[in-house]
């Protein structure tokens, strides 16, 4: 970022060439915890679109719906929202207006084991 003053206001201006920032330190912490990050390649604008949509939906439908008093209360509400509503009943436009559970059942062979 470049700072300059314009009409007595401090303005931040992004670099002329845009670049995607991927935190090396964050990736290192994930690996140290035995986790695998879900980032795509640098410059891939679609790598995280589905998760961004998921988080936006959760924010709108659950997180902003009330004041959460404890971390446990929020964690339990998130689990219930995902497992009892989002995956089982909520219809999704990207999978033909079916719930993820229905979509998976329709596209999983009966002899296939997880």
Percent of residues in helices: 25-40%
Q: Strand percentage, roughly?
A: 5-15%
Low-confidence stretches: 17-21
N-to-C order of helices and strands: EEHHHH
The spatial strand order of the largest sheet comes to 1-2
Class from secondary-structure proportions: mainly alpha
Main sheet summary: 2 strands, antiparallel
Total DSSP E strands: 2
Give the CA-CA distance, first to last residue.
Answer: 47 Å
Features:
114 residues; mainly alpha; two-stranded antiparallel ribbon; 4 helices
Can you walk through the features of this model?
- This protein is mainly alpha-helical.
- It has a domain of 60 residues.
- It has a two-stranded antiparallel ribbon with strand order 1-2.
- The longest helix is centred in the last third of the chain and has 16 residues.
């Amino acid at each position: 970022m470049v700072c300059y003053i314009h009409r007595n206001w401090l303005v931040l201006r992004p670099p002329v060439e845009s670049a995607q920032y991927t935190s090396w330190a964050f990736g290192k912490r994930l690996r140290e915890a035995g986790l695998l990050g879900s980032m795509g390649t640098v410059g891939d604008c679609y790598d995280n679109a589905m998760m961004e949509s998921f988080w936006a939906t959760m924010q709108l439908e659950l997180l902003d719906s009330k004041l959460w008093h404890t971390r446990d209360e929020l964690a339990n509400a998130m689990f219930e929202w995902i497992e009892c509503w989002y995956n089982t009943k909520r219809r999704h436009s990207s999978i033909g207006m079916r719930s993820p559970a229905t979509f998976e059942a329709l596209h999983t062979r009966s002899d296939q084991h997880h």
